[in-house]
Structures are given as structure tokens and as C-alpha cells.
Amino acid sequence: MAPADTATPKLHASDIGSIKAFADSNGDSPIPSSYYSIVEARDDVADHLASSFPVIDFSLLTSPDPLLHADTVSQLGKACAEWGFFMLTNHGISEKLMKEVMDKSHEFHNLPVEEKKEFADKGPLASIRHGTSFYPESELFHYWRDYLKVMTLPEFNFPHKPPGFKEVAYDYSSKTRAVARTLLQGISESLGLEANAIIKSTGFDSGLQIFVVNLYPPCPQPELALGMPPHTDHGLLTLLYQNGIGGLQVNHNGRWVNVNPLPNSLIVNTADQLEAVSNGRYKSIWHRAVLNNKDTRLSIVVANGPDLEEEIAPAPELVERGEGIRYKKMKYREYFSKVQQVTRLVDTSRLDKVRINPQN
Ligand SMILES: O=C(O)CCC(=O)C(=O)O
Ligand SMILES: [Fe+2]
């Protein structure tokens, strides 16, 4: 007798190489069972919470009016403490640049598979990595997503095709870095620290930046698969921009919430190193990407981290004022390479590697 899943063979992501190429040829046929990730409950979305998702107006944070600035700093602190995520408006990055970087990112993923082979993922510290799923070699099931990940800082690297991509990506990476730097100043202030405290203690000005383009093709059975599993980001601050198609869900007090950003806004989240630096006041929040069966979704994610050689630890002022030290000191390079080895992100937190009391 034929096995029950004959119609949905257990294809391995590494054999597929690109889920976009696979989806293009698969049409509306059932998806391979190796992409089923239904163990992660999908019916618990709390839509009534979406309207309370925080919004921060960047132009008020940079306002010369001290009252407007102080008020925005306190909103920023509240957003980081309560959600660990917020939508950033009026960030000053032009619509033209955002459109260009999105168009070129899409063009990259649309290049024939052969043309992208030279960028195939050769491990976490490679400067340019193109691949599919999340950790295709070791994960329990695969994810309906292709990626391009490029280290754009401390040195700028970038694929040389399609023409013009490198130039707009350079511009976008620099501008988002400046926005992240200003946000870190506001976040420092919101913790009662000197504005440059986090920038200095994490070596931010010689820090890591990774530019990621995620592409999620339409999935004929979106209720069975995920684009990205629940995870936290490893750096300090992540800035996400999507092509108008929803899919990001944020875990808020145990419930999944759909994020519906305004056009041209950025979605920002506090990541693992910020949780450690803030001694746990600002948590690194779990998020995931869900799929749809109509539209290709792209997200451009710029992850901003510390200097790889810097030892990251809670700010001493917070430890003295608070409940004692809650995170161990760890060099960012060590943390970065450790988290790349985590395979079962569903039930383990990367931060348990540095949490002094993993219950916290
Ligand atoms: O595409 C998304 O909405 C999520 C992407 C993400 O979380 C990541 O790249 O770390
Ligand atoms: Fe993420």
C-alpha cells in the first residue's frame, strides 16, 4: 500500500534549494509534508490587540523641543517595556529609496537559480548568504522562505547583481543604521542612562549590521506551513520593512498579534543584546512569519548589533538600581555563533545561554 503522504513527499529544503523556484513549478499542488509546521498552534491570533500596537514618531524623538523629545523618549520606553516592538513613522528615509531597495531586492530573488549559486550559504560568518528555510540541515520541518543575508557592517559587502542593487542597499543600510543609532540614544535615555551609554558599551559604532531580504512565495496551504518559526533576533535593534503584504506576527503576553504597518513605516524590535544590556527591562520578543496563498511577500530586515569583539553585559547603573545582575557577560561573537547552532527554536530561548536565572 502506498504511504499516506505520497501526494506530499518529504522533500528536503536543501534539495529544493529555493522555495520560490519550487513554488513556481508546484502551482496549486499540495505542499510537501516536510513543510508542515502545524505543531505550532495557529488559531490563537488576538486581533483585538493589533490596534494597541505602539507607534513612535521619529521626527518627535529628534525634535529640538525638549518637551516633545522627553515625551517621545517616555513613549519609546513604554513601547520597549510593554511590547518590545513598535511601528516607526516619519523616520526620514525617502519613499523613493525604500521603493528602490524593495524593487532591487525582488529582482535579486527573481534571478534564475543558476545566477544565485555563487551566493549559496556557507555558514553564519560568511558575508553573503543565499538560501532557503531557516536551518535546513538541522530543523525538524522546513519553512516557506528564501533569504539573502549580507553583512553590511563593520565592512560593506554586497552581491554585484542585479545592477544597481549594491548602491541602493548601501544607501539604505547607512540610513537605517543612523535611525537605529538615534533610537538607541532614546532607549538609553528611557532607561535613565546617558544618551550614548548603550552605543559606547556595545561598541555600536564598529558593530555588526546584517541586511536580510526574506521572500515568502504564495503557499497553496498557508494554514499548514510557516514562513519563519517563532524566534527572537540576536542583536540590539531590528528594523523591518515589508512590501505591503502582511505576515509578521508578534507574541504579546502569550498571544500572537498580526502586525499591520502603515506604508513606508518601519517595524522596530528590541533584540537579545538589548534585553541583556537593559538587564531584562526590555525583553527580546518572539515573532514569526505566516503565509498567504495569493501574494509574494518580501521583508527587508536590517539587524543592528554590537561590535563582535565587545563583551555585552547589563548596564551597571541598572544592576545597582534593580534586582541584581540577571545576565552573564558574553562576547557578542560567542553569542552570535552559539545561537546559529540552535536548531529547535520552538521551545528553547537563545537568551537562556546568558540568563543567570532562566526562569526570569
Ligand atoms: O518577515 C518577517 O516578517 C519576519 C522576518 C524576521 O523576523 C527576521 O528576518 O528575523
Ligand atoms: Fe526576526
Q: Could you explain how this protein is built, in words?
A:
- It is a single chain.
- With 360 residues, the chain is of the alpha+beta class.
- It has one domain (35-353): Sandwich (Jelly Rolls).
- It has helices at residues 13-16, 19-26, 58-61, 66-82, 95-110, 113-116, 165-190, 197-201, 272-277, 316-321, 332-339; strands at 55-57, 85-89, 128-132, 146-153, 209-216, 228-231, 237-242, 248-252, 255-258, 266-270, 287-289, 297-304, 311-312, 330-331.
- Strands 1-2-10-7-12-5-4-3 form an eight-stranded mixed beta sheet. It has a four-stranded antiparallel beta sheet with strand order 6-11-8-9, with no helix packed on it.
- The relative contact order is 0.16.
- Bound molecules: 2-oxoglutaric acid and fe (ii) ion.
- 2-oxoglutaric acid binds at residues 212, 214, 228, 233, 247-248, 287, 289, 299, 301.
In brief:
Keywords: Iron, Metal-binding, Oxidoreductase, Vitamin C. It holds the Pfam family 2OG-FeII_Oxy. The protein is α+β, with helices and mostly antiparallel strands and about 350 residues long.
